[in-house]
Amino acid sequence: MLDFRGKKIAHWLMTTACNYDCDYCYGHGHNKGSAHINVDVNDVIRRLDEAGGDWCVDLVGGEVFLVPGFVDICQALTSKGFPLHLETNMSVGPVLNEFMARIDPSMVIRLGVSLHIEERERREAGIDRFVAYVAQFRERGFRVDVNYVMHPRLFDRLDQDVERFRELGIAIEPHPFVGVWKYKLYPDAYTRPERGRILALNSNAGYARNIPSKGSLCKAGMTFVDIGLNGEIHRCVGVQDDLGNIATGMHLFTEPQPCPRLECPCWGQQLIVDRKIVDAAVASFARPTAKQWMQSRLYPLQALGKRTRRIMKRVGL
Fold first, then answer.
1. Taking the domains of the chain in order of start, what are their residue ranges?
2. CA dist., res. 2 & res. 145, Å (int)
3. pLDDT of residue 143
4. Euclidean distance between CA atoms 145 and 168, whole angstroms
5. Is the distance from CB of 30 to CB of 16 less than 8 angstroms?
6. Which CATH class for the 8-286 domain?
7. What predicted TM-score, i.e. pTM, was given to this entire model?
């Protein structure tokens, strides 16, 4: 896990387009749009300069390497002193080569690479090419962390895949699946042995848990901003407070603000002021409470109850 504390973070959603179609992705079925970009990188640079401070630009998608002129954008940011953090499936070969050739590795804090093993195996030479690119990036001096989305249906093959990639020189970190599968709510629905296995391979796995955040003071909108597809600036991924537009101006909070969400869907583990709340949530991945365990298995009844209440309200009952 990358620790952003001490830096300001501009989380830039560049595109929702992706060349993969993983069924556990939040964009599944909706991520085949154009990778056309509506934000001028010079406006991003201008706004961050005006705000002052030590900013890192977190480039996310979709698949960011599909964005037209992506390497030009990265070079513009790094040449102005803004280090980058990227999330990618490392599949867009020609642009990866251009990126390695033109971008200074010291200005890339981390390449977070998602393996997506099933999608890889559907593609010709997918695994061999993936391994080769990871090796090339590391030889050039880039920090590359390879993660493996720990969807429950993949658990039976986890150890086999870990060993397979270890022999190829790559350590993979399982990242807990967050979502619903077979009417169970994850990560709470993982069994104790499953949690132990995940933690043995990724000691930071507990940070995947959504943190109870209602009313907690948070630095989002102060040291963190979310830049949307059309340049709109929000407090964070989950709270859509209007903080301006990247083309016209950005205003930030001057002090931490209470979070209105029941749970944080964002970078709360690094932005919530009260560390006790964060530490308790992280620890509960290894030692879930009885309430969490029951809620994970009663999810269908909870969802049905919410739906029924909405229908009753709609018809005036």
1. 8-286
2. 10
3. 96
4. 15
5. yes
6. alpha beta
7. 0.88
